[in-house]
Structure formats: C-alpha cells, structure tokens
Amino acid sequence: MTAELVRGQNHPLPQVRLEVRVAVGKPIVAGATLSDEQGRVRGVEWVAHPGAPTLPGLEVSKQAAADHRLAFDLGALPQEVHRVSVLLALPSGVGGPVRFGSVAAPFVAVTGLDGSEIASYTITGLDAESAVVALELYRRQDAWKVRAVGQGYAGGLAELLRDQGLPEAHQLAGSINEAVAQGLARSVAPPPPRTSEGDRSRQTAASATAPDQPYAGPQGSSGDVSPPQGRPAGPSPASPYDTSGSQGGSSPGLPQPDPSAVTQPTAPTAGGPVDYSHPRRQNAAPPTPPPPVPPAAPGQPAPPVAGDATGWSMDERLYNQVWGMFEDLARSAAAYRSAVDFADSRMERELDSVLSDPRSRIGGQGDAAREAAQAKHAQLVDQARAAFDRDLAQLTAEAEVVEPALPLAYARWDNPVWHGYRVPMEIPMALRLGDLHLPESEGLGVPMLVRLPLERGLWIDSGRSGTGDSFADAHELRRLAMDTAVAIAARLLAVYPAGDFTAHVIDPAGSGTSSLAPLTQSGVLGTPPAAGAAGVADVLARLTQRVDLVQMALRGGAADALPPGLDTAEQLLIVNDFPHGFDDRAVNQLRYLADEGPAVGVHLMMVADREDAAGYGPLLDPLWRSLLRLTPVPEDHLADPWVGHAWTYKPSVVPAGSQVLQQVLAQVARARQEWKR
Prior knowledge:
The chain is an alpha+beta fold.
C-alpha cells in the first residue's frame, strides 16, 4: 500500500535501489545532497546537480524539466553518508516562474525500480520560495527511511545550500544556474509523457487536501527525526528544546527542539546545522562504529540496542540516541495530530455538504450521511492511532533498553549507577536536567539533556504560573524550586573532575537554608551562602571581576597572565529569592553575568518568581529571555522548534528517603579537599 505522506511524516523503505519521481508542470531543477551523521554536507563533491549529475549511489537529471526521475542505490553510498536530501529549485535568470507559489504544487514519489510506488508527497503551502528540500532519505538503525520535509527557501538554492552547511553555497548555486541556462539554450527535448498508470492526481496524493484517501501512518519502527538541516530556525548545538524566558510558556526561538528540535522538526526555527561534536574534542579520528544490531524476526522491526547511534564513545552514541528518540516521538506525534486534524476537517466538510442540501434533510438521508461521515472519521483516527501506537511501542522498548545503560551524567537519581559514584576524570558531554513528555504518551519520557559546559543560565521558576490549583501553597512551591536547584547543582558538581567546578550561593534572607543543607553540610560550596545586601554585593563583585579579567586575558592573548589567586574552575552562582535584597547595581551585575559569563565559565542559576520582579518592568526582560526556564513541578512550557509541540518538563528529583545525594556530595567534598592539598 502506498504511503501518502504529510509534512514531517516518515515511512520505511523496503529496498535500497529505488527512484524518486518529480512532477511540477513547469521546468525545475532537481538535485540531491549527501550529509554525514552530523547533518553536514562536507563539500561541493557531495552535491549532485545538472552540472555534476552523478555521485556514488545516485544520479539526478542533467537539465531543468517538468518531470524528473532520480535514481538511488542507497547501498552504494559511502559509509559516512547518513542522509540524502532531494532538492527542487526554479531556474534562475532563464525566464519562467520565480516562486513556487505560482506553479502547481510539486508532487514527489518514491518508487521501486519496477515503478511500484512506495511513498508520495505533495508539497503544499509554498509561496515566495524558489527552492525546497522535498524529501530526505535517511539511515536509522541500519535501515533506510524517507521523510517528507517540504522546507522552502525564498533565497533560492544559495540559501538552501548554505543552510546545509556548505561554505561555497553561493558559487555552487551560480554554477548550477549557469549549467541549467546552457542546457535550456540547447533546447533539450522534454521527457516522454507519463503514462496514465503513473500520472496520479496530486489532489489524491496530498492527505492534507484529499477527501477520499485514508491516512497512511508510519510503518514499522518509530520515525527518526534528526533535524533537517534546511530549517529556518533550529536549536543551538546545546539543546533541542526551546525555552525562551517568557512566563507563559516558551516558543520556538532558542534551538529551542531543537530537540530538538526538534524543530525541526514541520518548520523549525532559525539556526545552523546541529553540531553533535564534543566542544573540546579537536582530533579527527573516525567515530567508533555502533554495536551490531541483533537480527530481527521476520516481519518485525529490529530489536533496540543501547548505543546504536554514531559517536566517538559510548557516551556520545547514547547522547545521539536520546536525541533521536526525542525527535522520533516529536515526528510521530506530529504525524498523528496531522492525521486527526485531516479527519476532523474532512468530516466537517462532509457534514456541511449534507446540511447545505435541503433534500438531505427529508427522510433519513441526512442521518445516513452523518453516520457515514462519522464512520469514515473514526476509521481514519483509528488507523492513525494504530500507527502512532506502533511507534510508541518501539520507542518504549528502546527507552527500556537505553535508560539502564545511560552513564552517570545522563541517568536519573534512582539509577543504580549513582550508588557506584566515583569522581570523574573528565567532563561528560551532557547533563540530564529532567524528562520530557507529550500528552499522547504520558507513559514515555525522554531524557532532557543539555550540553556541557552550559551555554546559558538556568531559571528555576518558583511562581505559580501554569502550575494549576494543586500547589496553592506558595511557600511549598518555593521550597520545591530550591530543592530542584540544589539537585541540579549537585549533578553539576558531581560530573566535573575535582577542582574543575565551584558553586556559590546568594540567599539574602536565608529562606533557602533547609533546601541548601546538602550543599552546606557536605562542604562542597566555595564559600558559605551569602546573606544580606553586603553578602550579595561581595559575591557579585568577585564574579563580575573574574569575568572581566578572563575576557581581557583572552582578548589580549595573555591567558597565562591571570592573577595567581584566580579560581580558573567553572563557576556556578545560585541566586535565591530574587529580587529581594538586590539593588539596581546588583540587578545590572546579574544581567552582565547572564550575558557574558557562560563564555568564560561563569554560570547563573536563579530561583525566582517573575511576578516578584514585575516592579522592574521591561528592564529584566533580557535577563529572563537569556535563561533556560525550568519548573519544580511538571509543566508543559517547553517547545520544540521543529513541529511546535508543547512538551511537559518533569524535573529529576531525588527519591524520597534516599541518601544518594548526600553520599555523592560527600565524595565530591573529599575529592575537593584532596585536590587543594
């Protein structure tokens, strides 16, 4: 059965030798780019276009035409290729249409060599764009899938290629247009007309507009949603999650997916290609191959394996696998929601048609028509849910395998790995801040990982916004917020080598004393919590001075000229009960630390209610926007940049009655003391 895809949906490919057929009705350019596991096109030699139509494993058309047949042999692609993007563009400078909004919606289909259609996609919603990423063929768990992308670019081929990480994008786009112009000047004959067998109506191909086509959801394994590199706005390399500082919830604007991202993820938000490389890794050795995947039973998806993603080490492979799980869930949920929306809109159209005809209101014709429309609606929704449930089942199985295998920095507090804690010798790639859930999959959570070192500060929201009536006690909510901050700070202290991370606390009124007890009693803090206006001023003055000194040393190329007593470790400042105890000077220093600190190893974690700071007006808006907002109770305020889902964030809390936090901090304190000797 042919899968008629909607934007963001994916479908498994049963074979590696296939064709991609394109029909537009006006001459267009068709090409393809290859990208590696990090989503980057490594050079012009990885782009197939009319001037260079053949690459190992694929061949594209040599001319602009209304119909194209692109040949692919995925098994013959270089091993380092993990994604193939099919590109369409309107010829530049040769007359004819200059934007896709003035031509028929492009229709693309993936077929076998015998012409049997595997999946199709009609690219709707284009307007001023003159280039588009139509499809992606991508590798997932040693199998290939196709994803409907439909990401357009008003800047044409140059913008599209540049967004895929190609430095020579402008020059290459110019050479492609020149080759096309030369081909058109030679009056190349058009391809033979399509047969009636292959000339499918685009209206029946687009599930977004076709009233009579059933939803064909993803089959087999859950969809991979590695972010398409042609997103107009995507996640920062540090995180797929968008958490702009707005109180009412976050929207795509960060990476934030991306996951994200996710976003990926389908129209994500601005940004460059997602960079999976470790920020401190400089060597260029080839990545470690993933572990072999056990053979699957006939007709069944391959069993999940922890660490089956690419990467330099097992930690990096698990990080990339968690990212893939996040994207899989985002894409699968997007496809399900899209299918339900389509079913709803089709039923409404059919019911409107029945009610608008007076004859149908006589006798039982109207009732019969309504029952038929409702039955079709139920069938489509059930079919979509069945496809989504298959994806959820495989993702759940993968989570059950991956969760126990996660390293300490990625693991929940209840993971036994914490009971075997030893102070690490090097900084991990990322840190777990909690879990992410969608309403359709409450039982399935995906770890929320952020890259280290932190690229932005954290804001633990102690206000009642979005928390409902279950936490009417404001004091209890503030305590939970401080507990969350302490748990995150303990994680950061635990995953850094001894002497590489220092924590400071500002608690002007002493209201966080009970929550801070694990940090103060263990002795892991650099100095006791600062109280009162004098304490606030002292801590902020020392940290802003550190930022100034390190910035000057780096800009002057004299890093070895720093004062001998300067603590060169990463610094974390925990601020409780903001803005109580802070004057205008202190507020400006906090904004300075939030903006300039991360680049030189000074990180800010604020425990605050934005409503408490309302008196400062818009002065603090840049501060809130610069921080990653987290909550001490589950709340759906995170947004992925790919499909715009509102993700529910659940903090990673220490199990009630567990002593694991105290045991870990005690080892951190001992290692710190030994390092000082």
